[in-house]
Automatic annotation (TrEMBL):
<dbReference type="InterPro" id="IPR028892">
    <property type="entry name" value="ADE"/>
</dbReference>
<feature type="active site" description="Proton donor">
    <location>
        <position position="197"/>
    </location>
</feature>
<dbReference type="InterPro" id="IPR006330">
    <property type="entry name" value="Ado/ade_deaminase"/>
</dbReference>
<dbReference type="GO" id="GO:0043103">
    <property type="term" value="P:hypoxanthine salvage"/>
</dbReference>
<dbReference type="Pfam" id="PF00962">
    <property type="entry name" value="A_deaminase"/>
</dbReference>
<keyword id="KW-0862">Zinc</keyword>
<keyword id="KW-0546">Nucleotide metabolism</keyword>
<protein>
    <recommendedName>
        <fullName>Adenine deaminase</fullName>
        <ecNumber>3.5.4.2</ecNumber>
    </recommendedName>
</protein>
<dbReference type="GO" id="GO:0009117">
    <property type="term" value="P:nucleotide metabolic process"/>
</dbReference>
<keyword id="KW-0479">Metal-binding</keyword>
<feature type="binding site">
    <location>
        <position position="276"/>
    </location>
    <ligand>
        <name>substrate</name>
    </ligand>
</feature>
<comment type="similarity">
    <text>Belongs to the metallo-dependent hydrolases superfamily. Adenosine and AMP deaminases family. Adenine deaminase type 2 subfamily.</text>
</comment>
<keyword id="KW-0378">Hydrolase</keyword>
<dbReference type="InterPro" id="IPR001365">
    <property type="entry name" value="A_deaminase_dom"/>
</dbReference>
<feature type="binding site">
    <location>
        <position position="194"/>
    </location>
    <ligand>
        <name>Zn(2+)</name>
    </ligand>
</feature>
<comment type="function">
    <text>Catalyzes the hydrolytic deamination of adenine to hypoxanthine. Plays an important role in the purine salvage pathway and in nitrogen catabolism.</text>
</comment>
<feature type="binding site">
    <location>
        <position position="14"/>
    </location>
    <ligand>
        <name>Zn(2+)</name>
    </ligand>
</feature>
Amino acid sequence: MNEFILKVPKVELHLHIEGTLEPEMMWMLGDRNQIQLPYPSVDAIRRAYRFQDLQSFLEVYYAGMSVLQTEQDFYDLTWAYLQKAQQQTIRHVELFFDPQAHTQRGIPFPVVYYGIHQALQEAQKQYGLSSQLILCFLRDRPPASALQTLEQALPYRAGIRAVGLDSAERDYPPSHFRFVFERARREGFLTVAHAGEEGPPSYIWEAIQLLRVSRIDHGVRCIEDPQLLAYLQQTQIPLTVCPLSNVKLRVFDQMADHNLKTLLDLGIAVTINSDDPAYFGGYLGENLEAAQTALHLSQAEIVQLLKNAIEAAFVSAQRRTDLL
Ligand code: ADE
Ligand code: ZN
């Protein structure tokens, strides 16, 4: 990796911790927990990581996480990611987790939460790597299930900064979750939402107007709505863009077609992130490098993207200054 990108201090704002499950760890945990995987080898797992769209990815993603059973498993998963983050000079990370994908398999909420939380605390202690946790609701599950999940999370709210919305986007508009997000905001959570990844610009408007989000996750389809572009430029609501993800899930045919430079040139608060790095071929450094190469980004543009992420992070004014 190019030395500047590897060494420059970085902030990651869009990372699903379950999306950091590398084939080797899936295999190891499957063995440890006696879970039968539908793959004969680690190589076969890696070969299955080819996707036509978001839905085809989600099927592999949810099947893979069946190996996550114990608090130790969640700790090991999170710790492996944090070591990777440390190697890539990531100084602050905001991670999503999908509790419903685990509680619906019979794994209690606190098992998931404590495993992740303790690894995050260890990284703060050992590496000075700061973090925030974001609880994502699965939008293809009923809003009542999201509300129940929010209630399960309340005892742990000191360790959870925000709620988000992810999973299959088409036909699951943010408006379905208006009341859940209102409750979350009353309980003191910030809000974010995946919108405009595969779904239309109207979902981005709904996320802003109904869910009152602080950031839009992905948001790349904003390009289709000039009024929305003007609004994003004016308000500087950040977009957490994930270039390798967008190419792997065929939001764009190839990296050279990605619109993030266009959005950056329009003065929109674009950030670069990795989404599900184990599945999409790279962590934050690889995402920055792939975008830089294909879109001919200058070093000044890379610096702007990194500064946008620091500005968009859920951190104190003091920590923001430290990160700059
Ligand atoms: N869950 C994990 N990765 C996701 C993505 N890119 N979009 C929606 N839901 C997800
Ligand atoms: Zn995502």
